Amino acid sequence: MSNKVDQNRREFVSVATKTAAATVVAPGVLLHAMAQANLRSEPVTDKVRYGLLIDTTKCADGCSDCVTGCEKENGLDMLVEPEGASAEDWDRQRPRWIRTVKVKDRLTGQLSTLPLMCQHCENPPCADVCPTGASFRRADGIAMVDRHICIGCRYCMMACPYKARSFIHEEVERKPTIAPRGKGCVESCNLCVQRRDNGESTTACQDACKHGAIVFGDLNDPGSEISKALREQNTRQLRADLKLNTGVRYRGI
Amino acid sequence: MKKIHYREWGIESPRYWGLLVVLAAIAGIGGLAALYMEHNGHWVTGMNNQIVWGIPHVFAIFLIVAASGALNIAAFGSVFGKKIHKSLGRLSAVLAMALLVGGLLVLVLDLGQPTRLIVAMTTYNFKSIFAWNIYLYAGFLAIVAVYLFTMMERKANKYYPAMGVFAFVWRLILTTGTGSIFGFIVARQGYDAAIMAPMFIIMSFAYGMAFYLLVLMFTFKQDGRPLGTKLLMRLKNLLGIFTAAVFYFVVVYHLTNLYGTENHEYDAFILRDGGIYTSLFWIGWVLLGLLVPMGIVFHPALGKTHGGIIAASLLVLLGGLAAMYVIVIGGQAFPMAIFPDKVIIASGFYDDVNGQPLYYSPSVPEFLLGIGGIAVALAATFVGVRMLKLLPVSLDDEVVDPYHQKS
Q1: Contact check, Cβ <8 Å, A129/B111
Q2: Over its length of 253 residues, how does chain A's per-residue pLDDT go in tens digits?
């Protein structure tokens, strides 16, 4: 008898829990899906301009967490060395979207460590030179490559003042759906564009940085964290002489 | 001036076909090399994410530059009314088209996605000098073909002078476009100079003339056709003048660089500390490619011999390849000024640590593809002279008008 009651109670609790869960979660899922559908069906606008602020004073020497985070997010770590390639040559040919660089001031000897990636110029030379328009700048400021029409001429790599682009030198067997890639095309940092389209607010490099040296955000929104920081701090563009109005700014160099 | 008669290249079949088989084999090996690189991906080449344009670009740009220059000989006939050159126009036009096709083949086969050529033909970004060049190259082939027709077809002869001017202007724009591929690159110290375009034009004059002289002398000798000293002297003198003009541009380019402090490091790299690039600049480009051929061409005895002219032409061409290597590869190998006031002392992406040049070690398939392009150009030229009436029966002194300047 008591067993039967227990059984009934158990079933009741189970059904009730599932119903409650479904009632609570389903609208959320639905809303999330709708929100995503909205984000993806509406054209990208220039009301926002995405960018990064790198605080080199916080960037730790020897740390490459941002690189690891980027490579994991964008599937760069899935690429394997082609059979028969020399390890050293392959390392020069393997794509990087972000790298760490240590620099020394020529006069003062001051040392700085910083991550270097596509600077998301307002007037990107890569897009200027691309014969097919595969290299382009989204309305929201993200410089990226349309891999359907990239012919692999590498003129954008010649033109990029930051050496920020990589060519895919080998057959790609495994790739994430968010960052499809194929042999013979060029690619580079796209500020984790898939996250933008999913309504997320960070980049993989920012998430990976435990020193808080990378801030991602909307440069057009005066209230955003990045805009506030840029207003308060002295920052600079790399190769400011080229007047490219980069979306990535550096503090402390 | 006697009437010029033209006739197809009349060498015996075995020699002609033997020549074609050899060239086809070289072109075929180049094709296989391209297939190998395309199939595996560019990791089998020496190119990497630092030096993104390698040996194929050296050959391709060299051939494209030479192509526009090879048309000059025809242009001198129609644009400047030099009768002595008119008889040379047909070969000039065909050689120009053949060299361009050879160069473009190499360029296209080195693309990461050569099968997407149709995309390049249908989707344009008109701010790109590359996109303009696609039109300039295609237009060149079409215009020169029509130009050749106006030379060869009596009924179309009346359009010959106008087409000559059109073709000449087009070729000047084309080489400006080729030079501007580098001239427009603001990112790299060695490029980003307006002088690139005129320098490429004058280089094209020299390389085109060298190619032309070699093909003319070879085809005439094989066929036993007389080639008079008068004409040859005129052409070799032009080669000498063009070579001297290239030398002038090289001097001006580097003097300008030496004047501006921002370019001192680049010039120190090319002229003094660049290892292979410095050697190729001084020994390949300046000494063997410019000074020695000038010395031969203007030497009172050597300059009058066929051997001397052949040697000078070959040296100009080798010097041209060295020049392209210095410009294309050297320009990329030189450290980029990402941090003009700082030195990179460590990098996760092979940046120019401590000012070291970026690394490139060319691979054999790259050379095979480039040489294949030259073989295609020569084969197309020889097929042309065999099938069409391109070569004058004689270019002997008495055929060539000695009083052309008075006419």
Answers
A1: no
A2: 455 556 677 777 777 777 777 776 766 666 665 555 566 778 899 999 999 999 999 999 999 999 999 999 999 999 999 999 999 999 999 999 999 999 999 999 999 999 999 999 999 999 999 999 999 999 999 999 999 999 999 999 999 999 999 999 999 999 999 999 999 999 999 999 999 988 999 999 999 999 999 999 999 999 999 999 999 999 999 999 999 999 999 999 8
Please give the model's pTM, rounded to 2 decimal places.
Answer: 0.91
B336 close to A (CB below 8 A): yes
Which of B41, B133, B336 lies nearest to residue A171, judging by beta carbons? B41
| CATH topology for the A50-251 domain | Alpha-Beta Plaits (3.30.70)
Q: ipTM score of the complex?
A: 0.93
Full domain range(s) for residue B24: 6-335+370-392
In chain B, the number of structural domains is 1
* Structural domain spans, chain A: 1-42, 50-251
3-class SS of residue B316 = helix
d(CA A191, CA A143): 9
Q: CATH number, domain at B178?
A: 1.20.1630.10
CA distance A97 to chain B (A): 10
